[in-house]
Design a protein that fits this description.
5 helices; single chain; 140 residues; 3-stranded antiparallel β-sheet; 45% helix; alpha+beta
Length: 140
């Protein structure tokens, strides 16, 4: 633990901690995303679920970061975020980069972001023959 300096003015911010979603709710959210991806593509594929996740983030108006990443460091960056959407390769001053969108994991959403995200996922799921009432109970 770091000692606080006595000769400097400090600011302390105290925020209410929002409760984390339960593992049950997290499983239900990903199960619903998987069902929707299957309904839309007639096959099971984790890549389709990840693509749907990113699409739902955009649809829920959750902030997506844009970054130019040195190709040599892309694996490190990819481990630090939920999902990375590759846009294009670029070169600048002889260094190769990947331009990409960075999507944060749902466990890092604030309460409003999570509410909006769940709403767009439930709305999308209601278009198909999916037991939405079950998922509404699990996710609320």
């Amino acid at each position: 633990m770091q000692k606080l300096p006595k000769d400097k003015l400090l600011t302390l911010v105290v925020d209410e901690r929002t409760s984390q979603r339960s593992l049950r709710q997290n499983r239900a959210l990903w199960a619903l995303l998987s069902e929707i991806a299957y309904q839309e593509n007639n096959r099971k594929d984790k890549t389709l679920v990840d693509d749907l996740y990113k699409e739902m983030i955009v649809e829920a108006n959750i902030h997506v970061s844009y970054m130019k990443v040195d190709i040599a460091k892309i694996r490190h960056i990819a481990r630090c975020i939920q999902s990375c959407g590759h846009i294009r390769n670029v070169e600048h001053n002889g260094i190769s980069y990947i331009s990409c969108n960075l999507y944060k994991g749902s466990s890092n959403f604030d309460t409003k972001e999570m509410t909006d995200f769940i709403e767009v996922v439930l709305e999308r799921g209601s278009r198909y023959d999916i037991n939405i009432l079950y998922y509404e109970d699990e996710l609320k």
